[in-house]
Amino acid sequence: MSGDTGQKQSRIARALVRKPLRKADQRLGFAGMGREALGKVFPDHWSFMLGEIALYCFIILVATGIFLAMFFDPSSSDTTYIGSDPALHGQEVSSAFASTVSLSWDVRGGLLMRQVHHWAANIFICAIVLHLCRIFFTGMFRKPRELNWTIGVTLLVLAIFNSFAGYSLPDDLLSGTGLHIFYSVFEAVPIVGPWLTYFVFGAGFPGPHIIPRLYALHIFLVPALLAALIGAHMLVLIRQKHSHFAGPGRSDANVVGSRMWPAYALRSLSLLCAVGAVCFFMGGFAQINPIWTWGEFKSYSIISPSVADWYIAWIEGGLRLMPPLEIHFWGMTVPNQFWPSILLPGLTFGLLYAWPWIDRRLTGDRGTHHVAAAPTSSPRRFVVGVVVITFFSVLLVASGEEAIVMWTGVPVGTIRVTLRVVALALPFVTGFIAWRVARGRLPAMGVVEEEMEESTTRELHESPIWLSAKARKQQVEPAGGAEEIEAEQVAEP
Amino acid sequence: MSRRADEERPPMGIVVCFGLASLAAAGFATTYVLGLGNVWYGGTFGGALMFLAIGLGLWSKRIDSASPEFVEQRDLGPTPEPQFEKFMGALTSQPVPRSRVLWSMLGFAGGTLGLAALFPLRSLFPQMGVNPQRSLESRVYKRGQAIVTEDGTGVKPDDLEYGGVLTVFPEGFNITEAAGATLLVRIDPADLHLPANRTNWTVDGVVAYSKLCTHAGCPVGLYSDESRQLLCPCHHSIFDAADGGKPVEGPASHPLPMLPLATDENGFLIARGGFDRPVGAAWWGWPDGREKP
User: Fold this and answer.
1) DSSP A483
2) How far is Cα B88 from Cα B80, in angstroms, rounded to an integer?
3) Could B38 and A205 be called an inter-chain contact, meaning their C-beta atoms sit closer than 8 Å?
4) Phi and psi dihedrals of B208, rounded to 5?
5) Of the candidates A255, A274, A319, which has its C-beta nearest B72's C-beta?
């Protein structure tokens, strides 16, 4: 390109970028803040992008969800389906079911939106769980990040609930069966079970109220909570700044990586597009939840096999493996489904919420940390993580028992007994291995070493902006407020 | 300086990616207008995003390799004690009155309002007078109530072959409600070994059970005539249909509720009473003492 066009370009850039920004700044005065924001440093490790994947899934979920809400009718009252599904055409079905089939077959692009929505929900939860694992194993829930850990766990709970609610909306035979289990689970809530169940469903099962209620929660309350908590999660992150892995020049007092603009912004934008690409490819090529195959929900029918979506399937696996144990006292019953569907999730999320404080007890570590630990640096934490993941993996396998029955031809009872043993024994085995691994190799190994190699290939620099922040910190008088001190440019060599 | 150099030699790979992205985007618009179907929409739109992702990724990689790592200092830490005290001073100073009475009355009013605001939640519950526990305990059938199929026709024992099953309901029952689902199973009387007090609950080998699993309420939808076992597809509880619905395997802890059968003067099946226990899953507080007929 010649210098002439280069000048022309800069004139266009002036008109499109500089002028509007200048005008906005005259009114809002954001340039100082904006400059700090553009210089914000993001660590370069791939595992820091898991949370971003979840965030981008949320954006896709909201966008596709708004489209779906334009066509979906959340009502279980009967209607006649008229449309291009030949098997269902002219049949009396519920409005929720009929409108879901219509928006899939008779609204152009509707099936794509529906399938992208469903796939994105799966990837959303998957990314949250992996993000949680990363934070857990690197100890980044420790002070000062306990608050963001609890916000994150809440986001996981809400994401799972909202996915279940959305999955239940089409009033198809598979999700209706799931709702019936949900109903029975509510009945097992201590003391108030039956009352709570009637409060949630407004009637005996299934009743006319549950679909509109789930719809209201699915599209208003829970997304609003998710959005607010994602905002809070990110505000805390910005205030505390990212953690980072150990390496030369990295410490608890700084964060090393790429600046937000332009390198990280482009990378993150690339990730947004990549997440979108995966969701849209999946939505285009991979069928998910074909409700016309399951048919409309009838409370006296069922399809076999009936298997739940994976994020709820660990409860299903627990329900299957639990021996028929009930406790009777004072003429009352603690029903069997209580153990795997109330106690297990209660313990799981209770322990997750409490983990930063449990970990503090286990390790005696009360210090502030910004350098991510190697997963094996705390053998106890490492073992707990491995044991829990193993146990839940076996529960997930149990939720797909019928696949094993079909492959092996072994009766389901034998497989169940085997899985019960495996669920209890395998965590000990993997836990023991984890203990040996953690004990054999001490903190300086593993991820940390890898990081060191990676980071030595790149030159270290003080970001001009943050040099000034450091300078500011030094100049601040004990009594003074935060006065803006002009940043000193440091020339890049 | 490096930016100027970028402008002079645009990296072809990135340019091609962005070009392909716009092509795919145009392809999406075209296939949408032509109505080519889901695979085309997803392929083209996903393709546009994919090429954008690759282009942006390559671009950021270029910038990355050209720029050093940056260090940002963390200035997060506890506020120095004197400043924190000033903050506390500002929070607790005048003109906010320090009257304990005022504060506690404000708390009381706020609490009352908060509690009152919860009252509309009561509307989510069924109308007055419904006791969930009692509703759940319902035995569904009345003495002499006719047993009908989904379309409302009566059933005679001979409508079922030996080894056959049929889903039926109490006559006049709203079949969208789960509680009414009943399963008739016809078993050769020679193979039946019902508990002694229930031998007269069957008519010509026809036995009736609630179709709802006693574990988590799923319909017990699978029947094996060979073993005369009913299997729930949800959690694989297995019940013995020849032995009063006794649970033989899996997580279910209670037998399937059994319905005592008889025939009316025309030979149609009727109930001699309700189920011998509440239908569906047990609940917290389920009165185990009351399950015997």
Assistant:
1) -
2) 12
3) no
4) -125, 130
5) A255
Report pLDDT digits (tens) over A407-452. Answer: 999 999 999 999 999 999 999 999 999 999 988 854 444 444 444 4
Q: What is the ipTM of this complex?
A: 0.93
Total CB pairs under 8 A between chain A and B: 343
DSSP 8-class letter at A192: T
Beta bridge partners, B210, equal B182
Q: What are chain A's domains?
A: 39-300 (1.20.810.10)
Q: How far apart are CA A428 and CA A137, in angstroms?
A: 18
Q: A197, B132: Cβ pair inside 8 Å?
A: yes
Euclidean distance between CA atoms B169 and A435, whole angstroms: 58
Number of helices followed by number of strands (H, E) in chain B: 6, 12
- Give the residue from B46, B66, B86 where a domain finishes: B66
Check whether A479 has a pLDDT greater than 70.
no
Q: Are B165 and B228 in contact (CB under 8 A)?
A: no
Residues B168 and B61 in one domain: no
A406 exposure class (CB count in 10 Å sphere: 0-12, 13-18, 19+)? exposed
As a whole number of angstroms, the distance between CA A477 and CA A484 comes to 13
Hey, how many other C-beta atoms are within 10 angstroms of the C-beta on A52? 17
Residue-by-residue DSSP string for B241-293: TTTTTEEEESS--SPPPEE-EEE-TTS-EEESSS-SS--SS--TT--GGG---
Residue partners of B39: CB distance under 8 A and separation at least 6: A284, A285
Task: Please tell me the distance in Å from A82's CA to the nearest CA on chain B.
Answer: 20
CA torsion angle for B172, B175, B178, B182 (degrees, to 10)?
A: 70
| Rounded distance between C-alpha atoms, residue B241 and residue B209, angstroms | 8
**Boundaries of domain holding B20:** 2-66
B236 to chain A: which residues are within 8 Å by CB? Answer: 320, 401-402, 412, 416
Residue B120, in any domain of the structure: no
Under an 8 A CB cutoff, do A462 and B249 touch? no
CB contacts of A199 in chain B (<8 Å) are 121, 124-125
Closest CA relative to residue A186, chosen from B168, B194, B219, B136: B136
Q: Which amino acid is at A3?
A: G
Q: Is residue B7 part of a domain?
A: yes
C-beta separation of A164 from A94 below 8 A: no
Tokens at B3, concatenated: 């930016």
Rounded-to-integer distance, Cα B160 and Cα A64, Å:
49
pLDDT tens per residue across span A356-375: 999 999 888 899 999 999 99
Sign of CA dihedral A460, A461, A466, A467: positive
The residues with which A296 forms a beta bridge, in sequence order, are A172
Picking from A143, A133, A456, A162, the residue whose alpha carbon sits closest to that of residue A309 is: A162
Domain count, chain B: 2
d(CA B70, CA A306): 53
